[in-house]
Write a structure and sequence with these properties.
This protein is mainly alpha-helical. Helices cover 70% and strands 4% of the residues. The protein has 6 helices and 2 strands. It has helices at residues 5-22, 26-48, 65-68, 72-99, 106-111, 114-117, and strands at 51-53, 63-64. Strands 1-2 form a two-stranded antiparallel sheet. The protein starts with a helix and ends with a helix.
């Protein structure tokens, strides 16, 4: 019964996103849009579990969640690589958003302000 929340969120969140966008609540509309995507993906995942890629010709040849997982060693290597590179990527992304913050308005474009163009 708890898994039925995923399709409900996948159906109701886009309606909430539209209503919130019309009411000029951009942040909450983004959250509702993100919930829409999560609800749709979770619905597909819950409905197919444990199959990742079901075979239409031979059901016994389907790729399951356990067949698709990596070995313990590979998962350990991936953990340390992710622990190194994810903070670097997040830091670079945060820095680029900080450098390019602010919205560009039409009057900024018309004024010819060099800071607004670059």
């Amino acid at each position: 019964p708890l898994m039925m929340l995923a399709p409900a969120i996948g159906l109701l969140a886009p309606l909430a996103a539209v209503v919130l966008s019309l009411r000029k609540h951009e942040g909450w509309a983004f959250v509702a849009s993100s919930l829409t995507i999560a609800g749709i993906i979770l619905t597909a995942g819950f409905s197919m579990f444990p199959f990742m890629m079901p075979s239409s010709t031979h059901p016994s040849m389907s790729l399951t969640l356990w067949d698709a997982s990596s070995s313990h060693y590979t998962l350990g290597v991936m953990f340390y690589v992710a622990a190194l590179f994810v903070p670097l990527i997040l830091g670079y992304t945060a820095w680029s958003f900080y450098v390019m913050h602010g919205r560009l308005r039409e009057e900024d474009m018309r004024s010819g302000d060099a800071r607004a163009v670059y």
